[in-house]
Model the fold of this input.
Amino acid sequence: MGSSKPSSLSKKKAVSKAKAVPSSSLEERVSQLLSKLETSEKMIREERDLSYSLKEALNRFLVIENHCELIGRARDINQIIDSLISIAQQVLSFKVYAFYLLDQEKGDYHLRHAQQLDSNHKAIIQSHFDQGIIAWAMSEKRAAVIPDLAGLSQTTQNPTTGFIIVPLLAASNKIGFLEIWPDTIQIRGRNQLTMLELLARQASIAIENTFLYQKLTETNELLKRSQEQTINAEKMAAVGVLASGVAHEINNPLQIILARVQFQNRRSHGPEVDATLKLVEKEAFRISNIVGSILRYAQNQNHPDMQMSRMDVIINDSLLLTHAQLASHQIQVDCQFADDIPELTVNPGQIEQVLLNLIENARHSMKKGGTLYVRTLKKENEIHIEVEDTGHGIPKEYLNRIFDPFFTTKSPNEGTGLGLFLSYGIMQRHHGNIHVESTVGKGTKFILQLPLHPPTPHEEDPHH
Amino acid sequence: MKKILIIDDEAEIRNIFKEILEEEGYSVATAMNGDKGMECLKQDQFDVIILDKKMPFRSGPDFVREAKPLLGNAKILLVSGSPTIDNCEVAGFLPKPCSIDLLVETVKKLTA
Done:
């Protein structure tokens, strides 16, 4: 030991001087030196202890820092809460806790996470709500020890003499609170509480970040959707212009064919020629009908106006446009139109777009042929258009996703996954709805619901 | 004899409409565009003008506006593939393509 050397040296000096100095003062001197020696040894011990506790504190700090980082990095609320609890348990020994999250919209607290919480614990927390203790702790913005004066906790499996409420606040925003049942309520000053507050603050910021992140994702999704809709609307308008041009060009030669054939039909040319001319006339009318529906579709794309429309006309147009594909897949069409369907104020082009979509989906689901039923029904305040197929049906797990953008079970060159999503949007804009019922192996029924009395036109945005 | 003027840029349409209406007993003149139509109007009076809506250089409705002083009692029968008349004063409208029965019936009504 470094300090013992000088003291043994001074002892020798003391002995050599002893010949001249009286023995009583010598003893005094020795005892003084021994006491000094003791003091320095004590100081050294203390410094060593301090160094140990510093090292321990540093270690603990590193662990906490590590957890804080974990909390900060988590993008999921459950992960954040788990990290918060596991580190809090290193600060303070507890098993029972309840984590409440504030519903930012409704303004009330919901139990989000808990451990070993029985009905008695819940009753205690409820009493804390009722007595305004929670509200008080939240407004105090710091961890508070609530003594269990009434002995409420004695009825629980984990009795305690007090509870700790740790508010979770990000800046001044209330996030929630953590209520803890400490195993023993030995709070050493405010240190542990301060530590809990620090952890809670980290967790609050992280939770708030997850909320913001969620909001950002939602906004992003919304933006993406509206972009898709704009792109699609422009695309359809372009298709409309093209179709209208083509239709016009076909109309002139068609007029010549039709007029010539009919003119010839005014007189007889022998049974065989007459029959042929009749057939040409009939087919020319068919082309005329197809061109007419293309033209109507094109005009509706270019003039997205709401107008009084007959549902059976829109349905027949859609069926006419898809007739060839349906026939080539051995699909029969069965139309049942109710007699009491009034004209509805709709955008006929958009309703046609929805029907074309549903018919195309039905066709796709009936690869080996089948029957496509199209019905109109009058309900109390609505008109229903049902499009039902006898195809393979939609599995239950897909049913709530089919209206999502880009959701498709078709291969990339068969479908974009936007058809039903856009159809849903169109029905919403008509203050209507679109429903699906499906049984795997039996078929799928889509029901379009249109209100008989939609809101007045000036409430509508004519461009959507 | 009632007089009909057909203005259409498609020769075959002028020809077949002319043949049909002549068989019905009308006197029919034809013009391949608005300018020629104007010339016809300067020389003669017509009961009905069958006018194509979509023509190069001058559309049917433009022709109606410009030819107004020359029209006299002539009634305009507009023929078009799209069912809109673009705010021009017409006595009748025929969709394109139309059946010859509808053509004859409409012309008869306008000349009655």
The interface with chain B takes residues 244, 247-248, 251-252, 254-260, 262-263, 284, 288, 291, 295, 299 of chain A (CB under 8 Å). The radius of gyration of chain A is 42 Å. Chain A is about 55% helix and 20% strand.
